[in-house]
């Protein structure tokens, strides 16, 4: 009962406190698991590899067809490009991921030094960061004190919320290289499939256009799903197919002009 005789709706424990931990646990959902099929980095690598894999060999095959090359020549040249492109893209992904890891370590060392050299300034920055999320100064003060008592968590907080940097996985560079290279190789095979079964380059290029545009449309649609743009999958599919079509048309037209 409250002082005015009304019954309080706030659950009480035996000691008159707030809800016990046990009651809080009961109120939580029985099971809540985050469901993520792939990490954002892995999705980005796959998109990069497949998009280039579909477009570059497609443009090369179209260009060679415009130069009136045979299906065998186009197939050999296309496969060579897929191998070379996979290696090049994989190495590029490795170097990019390694550079990100090196940058993270440099910034980490700088932050570790700053919380020792200028702890008051870094603590003030913590408060400013929390203020950006609507936390008032008096509410932020105990949070800042708790952070500053643990240098490890303090540095992690500053790295994430001040610099926007997440610690990369130790195997990130290798994973990125392998993912991009494999995705490029898989994507690069689609434009070349018709040349494996059709001896006439004139007929094969038409089949290659159909197969590759279908693959680009499907890829663009799936890409929209994984990137969270599920409201415009058709737009994403058409944009992806348009880019591939323009690249192959340009290559074919230039080859015909030169030839």
UniProtKB/TrEMBL annotation:
The keyword Membrane applies. It is a multi-pass membrane protein. Residues 1-35 are annotated as: Disordered. It comes from the Eukaryota. Residues 19-35 have a biased composition (Basic and acidic residues). Pfam families: VIT1. GO terms for cellular component: vacuolar membrane. It catalyses: Fe(2+)(in) = Fe(2+)(out). Residues 1-12 have a biased composition (Polar residues). InterPro entries: Ccc1_fam (IPR008217). Signal peptide: none annotated. Keywords: Ion transport, Iron, Iron transport, Membrane, Metal-binding, Transmembrane, Transmembrane helix, Transport, Vacuole. One of its GO terms (molecular function) is manganese ion transmembrane transporter activity. The chain crosses the membrane at residues 73-97, 177-198, 204-226, 238-258. One of its GO terms (biological process) is intracellular manganese ion homeostasis. It is found in: Vacuole membrane. The cytoplasmic metal binding domain (MBD) is located between transmembrane 2 (TM2) and transmembrane 3 (TM3). PANTHER family: FE(2+)/MN(2+) TRANSPORTER PCL1. Belongs to the CCC1 family. Homodimer. Vacuolar Fe(2+) uptake transporter. This is Vacuolar iron transporter. It comes from Linum tenue.
């Amino acid at each position: 009962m409250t002082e005015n005789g009304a019954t309080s709706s706030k659950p009480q424990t035996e000691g008159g406190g707030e809800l016990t931990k046990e009651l809080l646990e009961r109120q939580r959902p029985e099971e809540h698991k985050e469901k993520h099929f792939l990490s954002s980095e892995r999705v980005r690598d796959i998109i990069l590899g497949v998009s280039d894999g579909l477009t570059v060999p497609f443009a090369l095959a179209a260009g060679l067809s415009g130069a009136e090359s045979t299906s065998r020549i186009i197939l050999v040249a296309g496969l060579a490009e897929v191998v070379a492109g996979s290696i090049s893209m994989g190495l590029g992904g490795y170097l990019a991921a390694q550079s990100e890891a090196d940058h993270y370590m440099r910034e980490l060392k700088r932050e570790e030094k700053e919380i020792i050299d200028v702890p008051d300034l870094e603590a003030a920055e913590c408060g400013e960061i929390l203020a950006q999320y609507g936390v008032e100064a008096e509410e932020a003060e105990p949070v800042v004190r708790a952070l500053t008592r643990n240098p490890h968590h303090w540095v992690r907080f500053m790295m994430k919320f001040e610099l926007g940097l997440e610690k990369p996985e130790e195997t990130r560079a290798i994973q990125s290289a392998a993912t991009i290279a494999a995705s490029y190789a898989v994507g690069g095979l689609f434009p070349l499939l018709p040349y494996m079964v059709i001896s006439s380059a004139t007929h094969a290029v038409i089949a290659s256009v159909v197969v590759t545009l279908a693959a680009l449309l499907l890829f663009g649609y799936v890409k929209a799903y994984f990137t969270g743009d599920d409201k415009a999958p058709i737009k994403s599919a058409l944009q992806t197919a348009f880019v591939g079509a323009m690249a192959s048309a340009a290559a074919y037209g230039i080859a015909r002009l030169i030839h």
